[in-house]
Amino acid sequence: MTSPEASRRARTAVLATCGLYAAYGLLGLVPGLSMVRGAGLVAAFYFLPGWLLRDEPEVQARYQVGPDGPIPPWSWRALRWAVGACLLVFPPFVLGFWWFYDQVCAGDLRVLAPALWAEQMTPWAGGLESYLERLCRGHSGGFWPESLRLPATWTATFGLGFVFQVVEGLFAVALAEEVFHRGYLMSALEERFPPRRRILGAQIGVAAVLSSLLFAVGHLVGMAQAARLATFFPALVFAWLWRRSGNLWAPALFHMSANLLMELLLASTFRA
Fold first, then answer.
1. Residue 270 in 3-state DSSP?
2. Which of 30, 153, 194, 227 has the highest Cβ tally under 10 A?
């Protein structure tokens, strides 16, 4: 039976997530605050969980959101899990990416039929097709990219731009999001809805699905585009890595690597 404390923590985590994204969205209506609200969101991802659990240091440690700071303890095992996940997931993903845009940019939208149908019932109707139309203007028209093109942000400042992208992508995006959504939100939900199924060696259940849904919906706040709901699927992989490795660095490193791979694929597949 779920304890009252577990129910309270889960309820607080969901309300904190919704409130945080609502505040982020409202600040977006104020001109000139884009950098401030972005920095505020990252800070909240790191520090809000520890503050909400300030009287429960043992829970902070279990969730890896404290008590000695917001950065999870480093783990070489987590690094190995992240590398293994990249080697396993990225090759088929790259082929799937090229196949998808080869079909879509040739005008075959059958693979998107469910998404387009669902989008028609939202305020963003037509947005996905408009986005793909703009993107596909730079498509070569074939399955394979014409060449490997590095993103402009990577080659800036004599190549130091890539270093900046790695540091920013890890600490301002991936790790911050993993600390909040997997370390805090998912862990709190798991205590309310304990996982009852083992998938590939990791206990995964309703909490992983719910936290991934909130993660995906949260991405709509930054950019109201239905395609961003697709982040639900990598979020499930992040959730699995968190539980399989036992350390938040595994999903954070995989998350950062996936974002960098996506930048490289977009730059190589579509001409600017």
1. strand
2. 227
Q: Which of 215, 224, 260 is nearest to 131 (CA)?
A: 224
CB 99 within 8 A of CB 111: no
pLDDT of residue 1: 67
- DSSP 3-state of 16: helix
pTM of the shown model: 0.94
At 23-78, the pLDDT tens digits run: 999 999 999 888 999 999 999 999 999 999 999 999 999 999 999 999 999 999 99
Instruction: Locate all alpha helices (DSSP H) within the chain, ordered by sequence.
Output: 4-27, 34-52, 57-63, 76-104, 113-119, 127-136, 152-155, 160-167, 175-178, 187-192, 206-222, 232-245, 249-269
pLDDT of 68-83, one tens digit each?
A: 999 999 999 999 999 9
Q: Rounded to the nearest 10 degrees, how much is the dihedral formed by the CA atoms of 237, 24, 192, 70?
A: 70
Report DSSP letters for 133-193, one per residue.
HHHHTTB-SSSS-SS----HHHHTTTTHHHHHHHHIIIIIIIHHHHIIIIIIIIHHHHHHS
Write the CA distances from 92 to 51, 86, 166, 204, 262, integer angstroms: 40, 10, 23, 23, 13
Termini Cα distance of the chain: 56
Q: Which residues pair with 199 in a beta bridge?
A: 202
Calpha distance 226→131 (Å, rounded): 10
Q: Is the peptide bond before 67 cis (omega within 30 degrees of 0)?
A: yes
